[in-house]
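This entry is passed on directly below:
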Amino acid sequence: MQYILISLVFFPMAAACLSYLIGRKNKNVRNVFCVCAGLIELALAFLCVTGNVTSGSLPGVCGFGLHFELDGFRRLYVLVIAFMWAMTLLFSPGYFAHYHNRNRYYFFNLMTLGATMGVFLSADLLTTFTFFEVMSFTSYVWVLHEETPDAMRAANTYLAVAVIGGLAALMGIFILGNEFGILTFDSIREAARDTEKTALLYTAGGCILFGFGAKAGMFPLHIWLPKAHPVAPAPASALLSGVLTKSGIFGVLFLSFCLFRDDVPWAVTIAVLGACTMFLGAVLALLSVNLKRTLACSSMSQIGFILVGIAMTGLLGEEGTTAARGVVLYMMNHSLYKLLLFMAAGAVYMNLHRLNLNDIRGFGRNKPLLHLCFLVGGLGLAGIPGTSGYVAKTLIHEGILEAAEHRESMAVALKTLEVFFLASGGMTLTYMTKLYKAVCWERHPQKQTEYDAASGWLPASGRIALIVPMAALILFGLAPYRVLDPIATAATDFLGCGAPEHAVHYFVWENLKGACITVGTASVLYLLVVRKLLMQKDRYVDRLPSWLDLENAVYRPLLLKVLPGILGPAAAVFGENRILTPLFGKTVEGFGHLASLFGENRVLGPVWNGVQRIGAFLLQTVGTLPDTAVWASARTLFRPIRHLDRGTEEDGLTYRAGSVLDAFRPRGVDGEKDHRMANLAVRIRRTIEDTTHLVTGNLSFAMFMMAAGIVFALIYLLFLR
């Protein structure tokens, strides 16, 4: 049976290769094949969940082997992942009917499915990291799919965050491996409980949190999320939001329940980060006027709710089962709600090719299915009673109240956290009301008649992909005690939680009061903020301040200007020059007696050190003169060429170099000199310049080259050394 478990990871990857080959011959057959592959993966997941298989491994792969495990939590998420992929693959043929690069999309879609399964089924950190990195690179192609300037920039940001975060996580894994000598989750839990090296654990945990928190969209590493979702295709956005962010949460769960179980400082850190993520994401979603960007920022906010639940479990210790159950259910609910909402947004986009609320308003007026999708999704995300979202949010809210009683010294801080929790829930209902009203109730001032007459706006396969998850969510909400409670009980074993300390009565006044506060807050915000501040002359206005964009305001200036300005001179002063270092060493050796005289002197010692550094800097500068000469020559030869068709000498040295070749060619019939070689030289030069700029100025290329270098290094170490 273990081979069925392993097939969950590698069957989609094999299907990806086969789908690409099929797509080269017949696109329709490829579409059907991919849908069938998604349904087969769902069937395999069901077999694993209902069977007796609990583990599987591939010994010797990557040196240490790949190890997989299936417990209650993994059973739940294996089903969620397979279900979401099956629905998005069912939705994709209609959505991509007029798209380009569909073969590429399906290939990387199925590859990402296998990698994501590998992350959630992993039994040790090396297996997790291996598939986590594969997942990052394959899903990167989703973001750049449309290849617009916005898509390329968002993809670069996504890849940079993924690679930097992955390297940080790898450093943390190395620290743990060096300290414990074992990397399986169960063994690390036991070893971390007995170790006294808390500083080392916090260092490793911080590195791993950086990597997985970035993928989850946790503040302040969320910068990729609001930009990647709007430019990615809607089926990919549903998976990015519903599944890939949960792979980041999976890493946070490992840290909080294996490495730092019942650790109060760690729980406080997660609580602060979760509160910032929860509240800021809700603010960004409220201010957005782009349909998919609103849903993307909403995902960031919902991740914050989950992080708060994880933190409450840590603060409560053995009494944190209620909050842990809320975390599991919130993860599942958010995945399914975002599947529904992003595919509904995709249905709007595939018809209008617009996402601004002013352009799409009124499209869903006479479309009951869209009404239901946005209504069910909006109420569920806001946690309104009668929805599965209400159950999960109630459990986390109760966890906050229990933590305030359990930790009396932190009662004020936790009460403040409760205020942010309820306010964020109110903003959730506010921005979802804005979306629902704009798309399904308001009228477009010019195109409403055209929108109302739209027929065949969604193929039958797409309707099925919307109806099935919506029906499941409605069922979950109507039967919380018979459906959601058993799911939570079965899925909290990975978190090390036992049976709940007490039964939770969801529909008593103490729990309904939170929902009433949410509704009241949303009513005030909608009337005062949305209708007054965010609308002008019956149009939605973008009030998002530029300083909220941390990428442009902080990260890019820091990485591209400040750090190079600091590290560049430092490298020049302290670095070694490959050519002149031997000469410099001999020179210093020749003046060794000066060092012996001055090195111990209090006054002259610093002077001597300064002279050495100045000498190193001058030698470094001289050593870089060849590179400087090459750069200057390139800038001279490759100056921008203007007015190519005029063939004048203003086109620089490249044109004149080509003219030398023209001098040896015969003149034309009319006796005029032929400038063919000069123009050809300019065209070649411009082609080289454009290609060079594309390569050297493209962060994606740099990241892929780094990844290729890592792959070749691994191949050498494993097989060729």
About this structure: The longest strand covers residues 55-58. The CA atoms of residues 696 and 702 lie 8 Å apart. The longest helix spans residues 149-180.
